[in-house]
Each structure stands twice: as structure tokens, then as C-alpha cells.
């Protein structure tokens, strides 16, 4: 079945509160998707972010980002007031996220809501039971996440591997003291996860009712400074002092003579195998609770990975190692049954990762912005496979309008000839570019919202290898029109991508 969807991060939704969140604007976006006959909404990872604000370097692989909790929904629940929200500064630029302002003001606002929530739980046994059940059902990660968050705050936000030994090495007596001495603050962290999950589940159910499925994004690696590495050092290649033996990156190539140093700890796949890959399977199970389909970032890592000695100045002396391969996916299916996945298989292609993609049957990605530099590119639409997902670009690409402006004249001419485009203006060429993605035989077509809006470089989500200005773009309120939805819908119907109607949709 042929279908289509839109890539739009949650943080990029319009909002009165400085960052896109799970409020009425999210529901309006689902309505827009439904009106445009889009069967999928693809989001970026939803985990809590740290320095740099990258959702691909979350502080936890299991927790949700409290920035996405909607103050508006808390107002509707009677846990906040508009006056309390309106008196705070969440940033003045409606097109950019001001993470500094969010960091300074969001936690205090949620603390007010938490205090009222506690009072309500005293008078509402069902709510209190629901809250306690949530904590119990997630005790495999939520207690340690709360401990990590609490100790990190006490240690002036230092990374866990810089903490005092009793905390770094997880001395049980020391951790029990943190739990007892900081019971209220730890419960506040539980509350934030509870409210995130309640609001997300409500939005997810609404999307299902509108026949819209949500594609989540699962980063392959986790951050070294994360609750995951601190809680489960045995999952990673660390020495007896919990220092990484090797870190992730990629080897030197035509773009970088010294390679790339990502710095993420690398998995101890041999140890993971002895447990049936439990940590990874728990992680994917958690993502199944959040999403209908999971896109796995850096799928190549399951076939092979590049390991760089920890402390090296660059990636030159790294070594290519074998990943768990098909054995992992067999264990995954045995534990969870069939999981709907998309493989981010971009970048260096080897026989091993091509074979793994074929063996698993997971659809890979075809990005059109990579297609028009060579007549024999595998990303040209006549070379696509049905079992794939076609994109004009991803969150790491510049919007297609800016891409068309920036490419060489010869590549732009080739693009026009291939698309049979008569458009001389770049805006019209962007829509021809989108139309080409719809024409692909790929079973799923996903377009970043910025391309439908013909946005330029100001709307780029992320520029890899840079720090400033990433993860900040936001949609202006009331910018999506019914006319745009109808234009998208026309392409859906023309190219046979009408979404499958689910029984629980209306």
C-alpha cells in the first residue's frame, strides 16, 4: 500500500510557551495532516535534552522531554492559571526556540502544577492509584533516571563520570540516602514523566482517531553523560573505572581526512547477547508504547561500527568492528513479535549493511537531495525499491528551496531535466521536487513540512558538525492553510497514496 506523511518535530510546532509542545497546536497539526490525507506524522526523538539541545543526545533513552508538557493542558486540568504562565519569559522570537528561557522558567512552572497535583491526589484515590501504577510500571528506568537527575543537580550539573565515587560507582547506601533525603524532588521528576506520558498518549489516541500514525525516531547511540550509561555500565565497553575503552565515530573519507569523532560509548554486544539483548529490547518496547512505527537512526551500527580509542585526538586510528547483525533482529522478533521499523541507512554503504537490510526486510531511506549529483545515483527515483521510504530531505538536510539555490548550475539543470520541470522560479521547482518523491515506487513518501512551505535556510533543523542555531526552528502560528492541505491532498490522490483506513479512525 502506498502512503505519505510529513516530517515535523514536536519542538517546531507553534506555541505560546516558547517551544512546540503537546497542546492544541499539536492537535491542529494532526487535523491538518488528516485534511491533507497524510497517513503519517514523523517526529524526532522525544527524550530529555542536555547541553546542545540535540534530541539525538538525550539524557535518557526511556524518559520524555518535560519541555513538551503543555502548560495549556495543565491550565485546562486546573493545575496552573493563565496569569502564572503569562508572567514568564519563554523567549520573544516566535520562529526560534530560546532554550535558555525555557530552561530558566519551565521547571518552576511545572513545580507549581506538581504541588497542586499532590493535593488533588489526596482527594482522588483513582488519580493517586493511576500515578503510583505508572511509577511501578516504569520502575526499570524511572527510579534511576530520577536519581541521575537529582544527583546531577546536586553536583552542579557535572557529568555522572565526574561525580564523587560513591555516586559514580553507584554505592547502594549512598543512593538510598539520595532517595530518602530528596523524596519530594524525586517525586517531582516522576510527576513530569507521568504528565508527559498522559499528554502524549492523549495526542497519540487523537491521531489514531484521525487515521494518522506516528513515526518515532530512535537514536542508535546514547550520550556518555546519560542515565542509561550510569545505570547500566555493563551494556557498554567501559573499563573497571567506568571509563570508555572506545567511542563512536566514522573513519576518514573524502569529506574529512581525520574522520568524525562522535564520542558516544559503544555497546558491549557480547554481553548484551548473553542477556538476549534485554536492554535494547526494553528500549524498543518503550518506543512501541510511544509510536506506531520506529525509525532507527544509524542502522549501519547493527552491521558494523567504527570504534575509536577513548582520548584520541581524532578518528584516524579507529577500527571497523562487526555489530550483532541478524542475531539481534531475530531476538527482537522473538521477544516483541513484528516491530514496524524504518532503517536510516544513509552514508557509507557496505556489503554487510546492505545484506542486513535485505535479510531483515526493513525498508531503507531514499533522499532525493542526494540523487542529482550523478546520473547513476541509487537515489534517483527510477532506481528506488518498493520496500523503501522516499524523502526530499531529512532533519539533517537544508530545506529543498535552499538546496536548489546552492547546488551547481549543472546539477540544477540535471534536476530540471529529470523532473521534466518547466518552472523557472525556485518555488515551483520545489513543488516539482516534492511531486517526484510522490511518483516514486517507494511504499512511503515523507516530506519535511518546510518543503511544502518552500522555506529556505532559515528553517533548517540541524546542520551536522555545528552547535549554534540547531533544533530551534518553529512554525509561525496560523501559518498552515486549508489551501495547502488541499494541494497536498491532490498529490496524494493523483499518485495513489491515500492512507489505509484503520478501524478505530473516524
Structure description:
The chain has 506 residues and is an alpha/beta fold. It contains 19 helices and 12 strands. Helix 1 links the parallel strand 1 (3-7) and strand 2. The longest helix has 27 residues, at 183-209. The radius of gyration is 23 Å and the shape is globular.
Brief summary of the model shown:
With 506 residues, the chain is of the alpha/beta class.
Question: Which structural traits does this protein have?
Answer:
11% strand, 506 residues, alpha/beta, four-stranded antiparallel sheet
Main sheet properties: 8 strands, parallel
Q: In total, how many beta strands?
A: 12
The termini sit apart by: 20 Å
- How big is the Rg? 23 Å
Strand order of the largest sheet: 9-6-3-2-1-12-11-10
Counting H and I runs of at least 4 residues, what is the number of helices? Answer: 19
User: Uncertain spans, ≥5 residues at pLDDT below 50?
Assistant: none
| Quaternary state of the chains | single chain
Helical fraction equals: 40-55%
Kindly estimate the percentage of residues that lie in beta strands according to DSSP.
5-15%
Give the overall shape: globular
The helix-and-strand class reads alpha/beta
Q: Residue-averaged pLDDT, rounded?
A: 95
Amino acid at each position: 500500500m502506498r502512503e505519505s506523511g510529513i516530517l515535523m518535530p514536536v519542538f517546531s510546532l507553534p506555541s505560546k510557551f516558547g517551544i512546540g509542545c503537546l497542546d492544541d497546536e499539536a492537535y491542529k497539526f494532526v487535523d491538518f495532516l488528516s485534511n491533507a490525507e497524510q497517513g503519517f506524522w514523523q517526529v524526532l526523538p522525544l527524550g530529555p535534552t542536555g547541553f546542545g539541545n540535540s534530541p539525538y543526545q538525550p539524557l535518557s533513552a526511556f524518559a520524555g522531554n518535560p519541555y513538551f508538557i503543555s502548560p495549556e493542558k495543565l491550565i485546562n486540568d486546573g493545575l496552573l492559571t493563565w496569569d502564572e504562565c503569562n508572567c514568564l519569559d519563554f523567549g520573544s522570537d516566535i520562529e526560534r526556540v530560546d532554550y535558555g528561557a525555557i530552561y530558566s522558567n519551565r521547571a518552576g512552572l511545572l513545580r507549581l502544577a506538581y504541588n497542586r497535583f499532590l493535593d488533588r491526589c489526596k482527594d482522588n484515590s483513582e488519580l493517586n492509584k493511576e500515578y503510583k501504577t505508572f511509577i511501578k510500571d516504569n520502575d526499570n528506568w524511572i527510579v534511576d533516571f530520577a536519581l541521575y537527575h537529582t544527583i546531577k543537580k546536586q553536583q552542579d550539573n557535572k557529568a555522572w563520570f565526574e561525580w564523587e565515587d560513591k555516586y559514580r560507582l553507584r554505592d547502594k547506601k549512598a543512593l538510598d540516602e539520595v532517595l530518602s533525603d530528596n523524596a519530594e524532588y524525586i517525586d517531582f521528576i516522576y510527576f513530569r514523566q507521568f504528565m508527559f506520558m498522559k499528554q502524549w498518549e492523549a495526542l497519540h489516541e487523537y491521531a489514531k482517531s484521525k487515521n494518522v500514525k506516528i513515526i518515532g525516531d530512535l537514536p542508535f547511540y546514547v550520550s556518555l553523560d546519560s542515565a542509561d550509561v550510569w545505570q547500566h555500565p555493563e551494556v557498554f565497553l567501559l573499563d573497571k573505572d567506568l571509563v570508555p575503552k572506545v567511542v563512536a565515530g566514522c573513519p576518514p573519507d573524502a569529506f574529512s581526512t581525520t574522520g568524525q569523532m562522535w564520542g558516544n560509548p559503544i555497546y558491549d554486544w557480547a554481553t548484551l547477547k548473553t542477556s538476549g539483548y534485554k536492554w535494547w529490547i526494553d528500549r524498543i518496547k518503550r518506543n512501541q508504547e510511544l509510536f506506531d512505527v520506529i525509525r532507527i537512526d544509524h542502522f549501519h551500527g547493527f552491521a558494523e561500527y567504527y570504534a575509536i580509542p577513548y582520548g584520541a585526538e581524532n578518528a584516524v586510528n579507529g577500527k571497523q568492528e562487526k555489530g550483532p547483525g541478524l542475531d539481534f533482529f531475530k531476538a527482537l522478533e522473538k521477544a516483541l513479535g513484528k516491530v514496524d521499523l524504518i532503517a536510516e541507512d544513509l552514508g557509507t554503504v557496505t556489503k554487510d549493511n546492505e545484506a542486513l537490510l535485505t535479510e531483515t526486510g526493513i525498508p531503507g531511506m531514499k533522499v532525493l537531495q542526494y540523487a542529482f549529483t550523478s546520473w547513476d545515483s541509487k537515489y534517483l527515483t527510477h532506481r528506488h525499491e518498493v520496500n523503501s521510504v522516499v524523502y526530499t530531505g531529512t532533519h539533517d538536510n537544508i530545506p529543498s528551496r535552499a538546496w536548489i539555490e546552492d547546488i551547481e548550475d549543472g546539477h540544477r539543470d540535471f534536476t530540471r531535466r529529470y523532473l521534466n520541470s518547466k518552472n523557472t522560479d525556485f518555488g515551483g521547482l520545489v513543488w516539482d521536487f516534492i511531486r517526484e518523491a510522490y511518483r516514486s515506487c517507494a511504499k512511503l513518501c515523507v516530506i519535511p513540512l518546510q518543503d511544502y512551505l518552500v522555506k529556505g535556510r532559515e528553517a533548517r533543523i540541524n546542520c551536522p558538525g555545528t552547535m549554534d542555531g540547531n533544533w530551534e526552528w518553529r512554525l509561525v502560528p496560523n501559518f498552515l492553510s486549508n489551501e495547502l492541505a488541499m494541494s497536498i491532498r491532490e498529490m496524494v490522490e493523483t499518485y495513489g497514496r491515500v492512507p489505509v483506513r484503520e478501524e478505530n479512525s473516524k
